[in-house]
Amino acid sequence: MSRKKTITSAFSAAAATYESAAHAQISAADALVDRLGRLSSPLKVLELGCGTGLLTRRLDAALPAGSHILATDLSPVMIQAAQARLPHISFAVMDAEAPDVSGPFDLIASSLAAQWFTDLPGTLGRLTGLLAPEGRLLLTTLGAGTFIQWKQAHGELGLDSGVPEYPEAATLAAMLPGAQVESRPVTLSYKDARNFLLSLEALGAQTPKPGHRPLSPGQVRRIIAALGSPCAMTWDILLLDYRR
């Protein structure tokens, strides 16, 4: 199974539990809508990786009357979950890295989906081509400081973590000249590291970086013990804002 299919299957399986564990995701969606600011004219909006509709619901409430949202996701199961809450919104199953839509869009928005892209720089370039004159791309993704505690615990035990290689804010900004990027880290407290892992499974976000060899049960127990209880874990949320 390809990595993209593995990721899609994991999120599809988590559609019913996603929002119970989506604390960082809520913070990211709120930050994106806050950055959007006050608007006066209706917008044509494309959302990528809508999941269960956390950001979609916030955009629907914040946008001026007459705006139109097309919310998309790779997972048909996630689309069904989002559409059940927002029957008046347009939804479609779509790969954000190969957008099959007709622009232009006044706003392209995505919250905590871009970290799963295979080719983030190329995708950002393709998305800007779908923007209307003076259109805007707003997205949140994960940065290099994400799960730093988990990575440090692995390093101290001489182990390699499965956390993907996320970019620094400056690196992300360099992928799209003219973009502004800021880091808005959120540190959450979990009962212990086992509870943290269970929360990732509830989100469908447990797919490790490509080529990662799973740890043995004994190694996992050592890491859980090293992180203690309670266990703090940082989500390094990067907010990218680009105006055409």
Automatic annotation (TrEMBL):
Keywords noted in UniProt: Methyltransferase, Transferase
Fetch the Gene3D superfamilies from UniProt.
Answer: Vaccinia Virus protein VP39
Gene Ontology MF terms in the entry: methyltransferase activity
**Coiled-coil residue windows:** none
What stretches pass through the bilayer?
none
- InterPro entries (UniProt xref): Methyltransf_25, SAM-dependent_MTases_sf
Biological process terms from the Gene Ontology for this record are: methylation
Residues annotated as domain Methyltransferase: 45-135
Taxonomic superkingdom = Bacteria
Keyword check for Cell cycle? no
Could you identify this protein by its name?
A: Biotin synthesis protein BioC
Annotated organism of origin = Paramagnetospirillum magnetotacticum MS-1
